[in-house]
Design goal:
STAS_dom, five-stranded mixed β-sheet, globular, STAS_dom_sf, Transcription Regulator spoIIAA, STAS domain-containing protein, alpha/beta, 107 residues
């Protein structure tokens, strides 16, 4: 797993943006959950900039869906490969997905 030096930064809108980088699986879920929970608890929601995510496993899908159920989650910048996987499992019909971080901020 690779992570940015600053795992989350405030967006222009009311929701903070988390921009994880690299591969995320069972071993990195605690780190990602902590980042999401910290941002969501402080701001009532979070924008997940998925542009730098290259791989996720089912534990990350579960984390994303659980986050969606408990707080306001917007997923932005979903790369084509991940978008395809989200579509196969129908996750794209459940989540609030935006083509860019800017569009997620302004909605």
């Amino acid at each position: 797993m690779t992570s940015p030096a600053s795992p989350w930064h405030p967006g222009a809108g009311p929701l903070p943006v988390i921009a994880p980088q690299g591969e995320f699986d069972y071993g990195s879920v605690p780190w990602l959950r902590e980042q999401i929970d910290t941002a969501a608890d402080a701001h009532g929601g979070v924008i997940l900039d998925a542009g730098g995510i290259t791989f996720i496993d089912s534990t990350v899908f579960t984390l994303i869906l659980m986050t969606h159920q408990r707080t306001h989650l917007r997923v932005a910048n979903l790369q084509p490969r991940l978008a395809q996987v989200f579509g196969v499992y129908g996750i794209d019909r459940v989540l609030n997905i935006y083509p860019t971080v800017d569009s997620a901020r302004t909605t």
